[in-house]
Amino acid sequence: MEPAEMKRIVAERAVDMYVKDGMNVGLGTGSTAYFAIKRIGELVADGFDLTCVATSVQSEDLARECGIKVVELDQVDKLDVTIDGADEVDPKMQLIKGLGGALLREKIVAAATVREIIIADSSKRVGKLGTKAPLPVEVLRFGHEHTRFALKRQGCEPVLRMRDGEPFVTDGGNYIYDCRFPEGIDNPFFLESRIDVIPGVVENGLFLNTAYDVLICEEDGSVTSVAEAENRES
Ligand code: 5RP
Prior knowledge:
binds ribulose-5-phosphate
């Protein structure tokens, strides 16, 4: 099955499981979240009254095109549910996010969310974080080379993310270093505590103990949900 088809299937399943009329909903960023936003647009067209907060300018633009009401995060007390993608998912539902460049807003939105729902195709599943994807770290532009040296001391190879020959600039106006750990990440909690105290680091792409459910679409089009397998209510 084509990856885009797997993304569509899992995104639509997650929206149909978790988004109910009247909810405040967080909109993720990326090629999988794209399909979730499209599906949410269909629900709105069918009469659902949803108030949504976007994790990026790109998702906000798409949501408005789909007729979805988008507000600032500070206009809501909390979000009932957020549906977002991930770059890696480990067996304990720990995540790497941020290859789409929206990790800072995604983490702020996740923190304001009761149920963070992660959607992915099966290629995102890993035994250990950091084995396929680099860890994105958003840093201030000021003194970013010094921040890079401090990141490197954590055992990784940080590479400044580029776009069209220029450093990629996030919606928050910052740079991103993609940090490749040659052996993967042995202790993500310890690593996060080390990265977070580096001056110049704005946010890192480890999303630990954040997901309420992870839905994954397999090659044959079937979808697994951790919460469903555990008989948790959706
Ligand atoms: C953006 C993200 C995305 O959720 C992540 O990169 C997955 O994207 P895609 O669904 O396109 O594979 O974290 O910052």
